[in-house]
Design brief:
By secondary structure, this protein is of the alpha+beta class. It has 8 helices and 9 strands. The protein has one domain.
C-alpha cells in the first residue's frame, strides 16, 4: 500500500525506465568489427551473407511538460541528470483506486496531473520529482495526502531539510522526503542525508 500512497516513490519506477532506455540504446548501436577480421572476409562472402541484421528501436523518454522539467536541476549528486515528464493521461487507464480517490478529494481528475522527474542513468539512488495537480490548494493537497496515508496505516514525520519543512518517510529503504508548494508535491530520494539535504535545497 505504501507504494500507492507515497507518490514520490514513482521515482523508483523512473530509474527503471531510464535503465531500460540506456540498455536499449547500447543494444541498438552497431558494433564495429576489428580491422583484421574485416580484412579476412572476402567481398563475395560479405555480399552473399544471409544473416539478418538486428536493429532495435531507440527508446525515447517522454517530455510533455518542459516548464515543469525546467524546475529540476541539471545536476544531481554531482552527476548530469536525465529529465523527463509525462501527463496524467499516460497512466490514467492503470491508475489505482487510492490515486483516483486522492484526486477526487481535490476535485481533480488524472487529466489535471503532470509529473516531471530527474534521475541518474547510473542507477544511483539520487532523484527528484515534481507531482503537479493543476489548481490544487497546497494545504488541501497536503491534508488529503496525509489522510490517505493514515487510512493505509502509513505515517510521515516532519523535519527541516534543505531550508524547508519536509515530510519524511521513516520506513523507506532509501531516504525519501517531500513537501507541498503551490499546486505541486516536490520529492527527493537519496542514499544519504547529505545528498537528500542538497537535493531539497536545489528545488524551488
Amino acid at each position: 500500500m505504501r507504494d500507492r500512497i507515497a507518490i514520490w516513490s514513482i521515482a523508483v519506477v523512473a530509474m527503471l525506465v531510464v535503465g531500460c532506455s540506456s540498455g536499449t540504446a547500447q543494444s541498438a548501436a552497431p558494433a564495429s568489427a576489428p580491422a583484421s577480421t574485416a580484412a579476412s572476409i572476402a567481398p563475395s562472402e560479405a555480399a552473399t551473407s544471409t544473416e539478418p541484421s538486428l536493429a532495435l528501436p531507440t527508446f525515447v523518454l517522454p517530455s510533455t511538460d518542459k516548464e515543469l522539467e525546467a524546475l529540476i536541476p541539471n545536476t544531481l549528486c554531482g552527476e548530469p541528470a536525465t529529465k523527463f515528464s509525462f501527463s496524467g493521461a499516460t497512466f490514467e487507464s492503470g491508475a489505482d483506486p487510492e490515486f483516483r480517490q486522492l484526486l477526487s478529494a481535490l476535485g481533480k481528475t488524472p487529466s489535471d496531473v503532470s509529473m516531471a522527474v530527474g534521475v541518474l542513468p547510473s542507477g544511483k539512488k539520487c532523484s527528484v520529482g515534481i507531482f503537479r495537480v493543476k489548481g490544487a490548494d497546497p494545504n488541501q493537497f497536503k491534508q488529503v495526502f496525509l489522510a490517505a496515508a493514515a487510512k493505509s496505516g502509513d505515517t510521515y514525520s516532519e523535519t527541516s531539510l534543505g531550508g524547508k519543512t519536509v515530510l519524511a518517510d521513516p520506513t523507506s529503504d532509501s531516504i525519501q522526503y517531500g513537501y507541498f508548494k503551490g499546486d505541486a508535491l516536490f520529492f527527493a530520494t537519496a542514499d544519504s542525508p547529505a545528498d537528500a539535504d542538497a537535493l531539497i535545497a536545489s528545488l524551488p
